[in-house]
Each structure stands twice: as C-alpha cells, then as structure tokens.
Amino acid sequence: MHWRDITDFVPILFSGALMSIIITLGCLVLSTVLGLVWALLKMSRHPGVVTVVSAMINVVRGLPMIVLLFYIYFVLPDIGIQMGALEASIIGLGFGYSTYVAEIIRSGIEAVDPGQFEAAQSIGMGRVKTMYRVILPQAVRVALPPYANTLVMMLKDSSLASTITVAEMTREGQLIAASTFQNVTVYTLVALGYLAMSLPLMSLTRHLEKRFGKHKADKRPSKREMKATRLYER
C-alpha cells in the first residue's frame, strides 16, 4: 500500500460515494411517499383494500432487494418499460423499502390515542385534516428511531446498485481493484467510506432512540394540543 495509490483512488471513490448518497436520498423520498400511502391504505375501512395491500407488502418483503433490482432493470424492458440503471436502482430500493416504512408509519399512527382522532372529528375536523394536523405529528415522534435505522440500511443497500452497473462506491472499488489488483487497499478504503457515511446516521439513531424510543403517545392531549383544539372550536 502506497500513499500515492491512496491519493489516486480516493477521488474516484469519493465520486462513487456521492452516487451512493444520491441513491440513498432517492430511495428515502420514494419509500417515504409510498410507505405513507401503503400505511394509510392498510388502515382503510375497506377489508378488500387491506387484504390486497397486506398481501403486496408481504410478497415484496419476502423478496431479496437484489431480485427487485434485477426484475426492474432486466425484466421490465422486455415489456417495453425502459429506464436507466440509476433510475432502476432508486425505484427498486425505494419500492422495496416502502414496505418497511409502511409498517413503521402504521405503528406510529396506531400508537396515538384513538380518542384524539374522535375528539378532532367531534369539533368538525375531517378525516384527512385530522390525520395530518393531529395524528401524524404525534406519530412521527414514535416512528423516528426505527425510521432513522432504516435510513442506515438504505445507505448500505445502495451498494446493490453496483450489480446493475451503477457507478456508486462499491462499483468504483470493484473497477479499481480489477485494474490495479490492490484489493486490500481498495476495499479497505471502500469500507472506511461506508463507515464515514453510516456512523453519523447510527449516532443519530441512538440519539433518537434515547429521546423518543421509550416514548408512547400520551393518553391525554398535551397543553399545546388542547390549546390547538380550543382554537379550532372557535
């Protein structure tokens, strides 16, 4: 291992790390949006909707992420749906993780006292308004720790995009190692790169667990929530 080699490899791996971050952020946004949709549908009053969504979630969670990526990148083009490797990786990982995020959001919503939903509706708030004004803000506090932990998993699984030729950090490391045969140096740098990105997220997860992990939604509304209720009554 030579210092000159490290200085040559780091810029290439850094560009790959930026791609890993892009994939993770794209996966985070897509999985959050879809996860919220799945969670709300799974809590629907219609048994048919609940059955279909629950079955879809169970099927997707039973598949390896790499299979989802292969299916989207290699199979969908056969039926006329074309997309680039980056888009396929974000959609595949985002769709896969949306099923996990859905359960996190659903658990957070169900942790809120049902009486608050009934109280909000009794003062004329609609179901949708009650959900995003009263229920979701409280559910977020319960869901934050597992949600942050899922973000760490997304970052690590972004390396799967290398299997469909996305030039993220693992892929760049593979290419460098194949051309220089310096496996120890290259993959040590790759490992350090992932640690540099994931350790701050893990620290954030521990902080959130200490602050909110043992938190359960209050059985009675807080003073702020009671004040907000009085304002709605006016």
TrEMBL record:
<feature type="transmembrane region" description="Helical">
    <location>
        <begin position="184"/>
        <end position="204"/>
    </location>
</feature>
<dbReference type="GO" id="GO:0006865">
    <property type="term" value="P:amino acid transport"/>
</dbReference>
<dbReference type="InterPro" id="IPR035906">
    <property type="entry name" value="MetI-like_sf"/>
</dbReference>
<dbReference type="GO" id="GO:0043190">
    <property type="term" value="C:ATP-binding cassette (ABC) transporter complex"/>
</dbReference>
<feature type="transmembrane region" description="Helical">
    <location>
        <begin position="12"/>
        <end position="41"/>
    </location>
</feature>
<feature type="compositionally biased region" description="Basic and acidic residues">
    <location>
        <begin position="219"/>
        <end position="234"/>
    </location>
</feature>
<keyword id="KW-0472">Membrane</keyword>
<keyword id="KW-0029">Amino-acid transport</keyword>
<keyword id="KW-0813">Transport</keyword>
<dbReference type="GO" id="GO:0022857">
    <property type="term" value="F:transmembrane transporter activity"/>
</dbReference>
<comment type="similarity">
    <text>Belongs to the binding-protein-dependent transport system permease family. HisMQ subfamily.</text>
</comment>
<feature type="region of interest" description="Disordered">
    <location>
        <begin position="212"/>
        <end position="234"/>
    </location>
</feature>
<protein>
    <submittedName>
        <fullName>Amino acid ABC transporter membrane protein, PAAT family</fullName>
    </submittedName>
</protein>
<keyword id="KW-0812">Transmembrane</keyword>
<keyword id="KW-1003">Cell membrane</keyword>
<feature type="domain" description="ABC transmembrane type-1">
    <location>
        <begin position="17"/>
        <end position="205"/>
    </location>
</feature>
<keyword id="KW-1133">Transmembrane helix</keyword>
<dbReference type="InterPro" id="IPR010065">
    <property type="entry name" value="AA_ABC_transptr_permease_3TM"/>
</dbReference>
<dbReference type="Pfam" id="PF00528">
    <property type="entry name" value="BPD_transp_1"/>
</dbReference>
<feature type="transmembrane region" description="Helical">
    <location>
        <begin position="48"/>
        <end position="74"/>
    </location>
</feature>
<dbReference type="InterPro" id="IPR000515">
    <property type="entry name" value="MetI-like"/>
</dbReference>
<dbReference type="InterPro" id="IPR043429">
    <property type="entry name" value="ArtM/GltK/GlnP/TcyL/YhdX-like"/>
</dbReference>
